[in-house]
Design a protein that fits this description.
The protein is an all-alpha fold. The protein contains twelve helices and no strands. The chain has a single domain, classed as MetI-like (MetI-like fold, Orthogonal Bundle), CATH 1.10.3720.10.
Length: 276
């Protein structure tokens, strides 16, 4: 696995970027030079340090309230990654059991699960998340819950398609002919063979939920005032005079989402035995 990873530049880029941002999120209190919420109006709108009026005490500059943008960028990684990882994990925890039941048993079980999933798929995910967060306090828990309700159907439908193929393979039929029960077959034979597609879905969906969270924050439904989307929204009115407020948070979102997509594509190729 490591050998194949090292020979794939895009996958290697994805792993390096994701690991860097994970380390930054974990060690944020030790890496951030200032309190991300501390307002110093005398230092408002300082440009990045490498520009003419920059200050190396604030390498990425400050915003309209004099807050250090590097510190906000570092702490913002915590918000995006926590919501992204928790949201994707919750989607899989809900969608995987339903996909196993619907795909294996078929019949009325499949019809009930898929029709409910179709109802949720017919509602735009971001719109549903906005409605739920607007009704509740925008905390990390409520935002994660909103994304789970908006996205579980995608996990169910994606994994179910794989279960439908696995249940018809010879080793499952052999286990059934040998007298194995349905629950045993699902746990022992079907579930392990869905790990590949589940892993790929989780990696890609973390990126999608990070984009969703940034969109919610941009629209004013942020679960934290240090999120990347919040800084994007705060900087839009200064884009012509203080471009750095929005630029660096936008670049962080771009890099993380791109890296996760590269990583997800590589995992799909690596875990798909038909491509070997």
């Amino acid at each position: 696995m490591l050998r194949k990873l090292l020979t794939n530049p895009k996958a290697l880029f994805g792993v390096v970027v994701v690991v860097i941002f994970l380390l930054v999120a974990i060690f944020a209190p030790y890496l951030a030079p200032d309190d991300p919420r501390q307002q110093v109006l005398s230092k408002r709108l300082i440009p990045p340090a490498w520009t003419e009026k920059g200050d190396w005490k604030h390498p990425l500059g400050t915003d309209a309230l004099g807050r250090d943008l590097l510190s906000r960028l570092i702490y913002g990684s915590r918000v995006s990654l926590i919501v992204g990882i928790l949201g994707a994990a919750a989607c899989v925890l809900v969608g995987l059991p339903l996909a196993l039941l619907a795909g294996y048993y078929r019949g009325w079980v499949d019809e009930v699960v898929m029709r409910i999933a179709d109802v949720f798929l017919s509602i735009p995910g971001l719109l549903l998340a906005i409605a739920l967060v607007a009704l509740l306090d925008p905390t990390i828990f409520t935002v994660t819950l909103a994304f789970t309700l908006a996205s579980w159907a995608w996990a169910t439908r994606t994994i179910r398609s794989e279960v439908l193929k696995i249940r018809e393979i010879e080793f499952v039929e052999a286990a059934r002919a040998g007298g194995a029960g349905n629950i045993y077959i699902i746990i022992r034979h079907v579930l392990p063979n869905t790990i590949g597609i589940t892993t790929v879905f989780t990696a890609l969906w973390v990126a999608i939920i990070i984009l969703f969270e940034a969109s919610l924050s941009f629209l004013g439904f942020s679960c934290s005032d240090t999120s990347w989307g919040w800084d994007l929204a705060n900087g839009k009115q200064y884009i012509s005079t203080a471009w750095w407020i929005s630029t660096f948070s936008g670049l962080a979102i771009f890099l993380v989402v791109l890296a996760l997509n590269f990583l997800g594509d590589w995992l799909r190729d690596y875990l798909d035995v038909k491509l070997d």
